[in-house]
Input
Amino acid sequence: MSAPTPAADAPQPSLVSSLTRSLLAAVVLVWALGTVLVAWYVNYQIQHNFDFELSESAHRQLFVAPMYIPAAGEEIPAVMHEPPDTVHDAPLLLQLRDLQGRVLVRTAAAPETGWTPSLAEGFSDTDNYRVFTLYDPAKQLWLQMADTREERREASRNTLSGLVLLLLLILPVLAFIIRWVARRQLRSLGDIQAQIQARNGRNLEPLRTTHYPLELAQVGLGVNLLLDRLQEALNVERSLAANAAHELRTPLASVRLRLHTAIDQAEATAAASVPLSEAKAALQALETLSHRTERLLQLSRAEAGDTARFAPVDLVQLAGTLAQEFWQQPRALKRLDWIAPEGHEPVWVLGDIDSLAIALRNLLDNALTHTQAAVELSVERSPQPALVVRDHGPGVPTAQLPHILERHVRADSQRLGYGLGMSIVGSIVQKHGARLELRSPLKDGSQGLEVRLKFAGLSAPTAD
Amino acid sequence: MRILLVEDDAALASAVLGYLQGKQFLVDLATNLGQARSMVSLAGYSAVLLDLNLPDGDGLQLLPAIQAQAEPASVIVVTARDQVSDRIRGLDAGADDYLIKPYDPEELLARLRAVERRRSQQTSSVVVRGEVSIDLTREVVKAKGFPVVMTPKEWALLRVLASRAQQVHSRERLLDALYQWDDSSDSNTLEVFISRLRRKLGTSLIQTVRGIGYRLAPP
Output
C-alpha cells in the first residue's frame, strides 16, 4: 500500500506557509491602515502645536518689537535683532506693520515686503509661509509672525518615516513568530499523518487521539471508525478467501475424481460407456460448484453495484420475472405464489434491477430452502413501494432477528454462502437507500417469517 | 425442426450442438453476429438460441433480421442468471423466451419442445375480453397492454376458462385444473383463485353462474 504522492509538476502548498502568508498579509494590511490613521492624527497634532507656538510668541513679541520702530525720517523697515538662541536653529520670522500695511520692523530672516497684501487677525497661508497676524489697537500696529511651510513639512516627514521604519523592523519578527506558532500548532497534524501512514493491512490499530486538539481528535475518531469497518471487512474477506478456495476446490476435485474413475472403469471393462452412477455424481458435484460460484459472483456484484447505474425499476415486472424464473424449479412450482398489487400500473423505484433481482432471489431462495411451507411474493404500492417475501415456515426466534443481516462465515458448517445470502441482501438494500423490515411470526399466526424491502417512491419514470 | 445456435464460446457451442443433434434436431452454429445475420436470411429456422454477448455486438441486434423473415423463428435469449435487465430487454425487444446460463440440457429441450408445439398449432388462439387479452398459444396474458404474470395455479384456471370461452365450467372441472398443483384444493381454494384472477384482470372478466360454476364474460 503506497501513500498517494502529489504530482511533481504541481507542488501542494504547505499549511504552515499558507497560514503564515495569509496571517502576515492581514497583519501588514491592518498595520498599514493603522499607520495611515496615526500619521494623519500625529500630523494634525504637529500642525496644531506649531500654530500654538506661533501665536504664543506673537503675543510675546508684541511687547518687544515696537521698541525697534525707527524714528521719523529713518529708513524703514528697521531690522530687529533677535537674541542668540542655541536651542532653535530656525530664525525668528516677524514683521511689524502700520495701518497702511507698510513693514516698519522686520527680523533679519523676514522679507522686506509684507507677507500678506491685506491685514486681518488670525492664521493665513501663503505659498511658502504660515502666517499669524495680531493687531494692537492701542498702538495701532499689526504684528505678523510666520513659520516656513518647509519647516513644518520636515517635522511631519521625520515623524512618519520613524513610524514606517518601526513597522519595517517589526514585520520580520512578527513573521517569525506567526510561523513558529503555526508550526507548533500544526505539529499534531504531522503526527496524525504519520500515524495513519503507519497503518496497513496488518496494522489496523486505532490511532491515539487523546493529546490532540478537539478538531483533530474528531478527525482521528472518524479515521478510527473507518479502520474498524475496514478491519471487519478484511476479516470477512480473509475467511471468505480461505473458505472460497476450499469450497470451490472440493467439488472440482470430486468431479475430476469421478470422471477419472468412470474412464478407468470403462477402460478396464472395455465397455463403450461410463457407469451412470459416476456420471451422476460428477454432475452433482458440478451443480454444487455452480451454486457456490454463483454466491461468490453475487457477493462481488452486490459490493460493486454503483449508484451511477440506477434507473427506474418496475417492482411488478421485477417480481413477476423472478417468480417465473423460480417456477422453472420443481420445488417452487407448487409452493411459490405471486401476488401482484391492485391495478396494472407499474410500481416504480430507483435502482439497479440486476442487484435488486439478486436480493429478491436470495430472499426467495432462503424461504424455499429453509422451510417446506408455502411462500408468498408480493409487491405493495402504498404507503410506499415494497417487495414482500412471506413464508409460513417455523419462523425465526425474536432474539435472532436482529442478527440475520450480520455478515459471517459459518465456521461450524464450513458451507460457503450460508450466512452470506442475507448479508448480500443487506448491502444491496443499503446501496438503494431502502429499508429492510423483518417480522416473525407473521401478523396473523404463530409462525412464519416476513421480509419487507421498503423503497422511496418514484412518482413517474424518468426513463425515455 | 431446424435451429440456429448463436454462441461464441467454442466449448459450450460444441456441447450444445452435440446434445441437440443427439436429440434429432438440425442445428447450425454461428459464432458471431455477422455470420448469424447472413444465416438467418438463408435458411428457414424454427428457433434461434441467442447468446447476447457476441464478439461483434449485442445479440439483440439480430432480432430485426429475424423478424423480417416471412416466417420468423422463435427466439430464445440466453443470459447470465444475474442479468435480469438483459432478460427483460430481450423480451421487450421481441424475444419469445429466455434461458439462464448455466442451464440444464433438459430445460433447453423443454423450451425447444414448447416452441415446436406452438409452431404446430397453426392458428394463434388469442381470447380478447375488453382490455384483457389471453394468448393461449404463447401463454401470455395482457391487461391494458401490460403483461400480467400469472402463477401456475392462476394460469391453470384461466386456461380452462379461456380455452372454451363460451362454455360454463362446473366447479368440479375447475377444481380438477387446480388439483394438479395442490392436492389439498377444496372449494374454498377455488373461490380464492377466482377472486385473485378478478383482482388481476378486472372483476367483470369472470362471471359466476349460480349453482353451476363460472364462465368467461361474453365478448
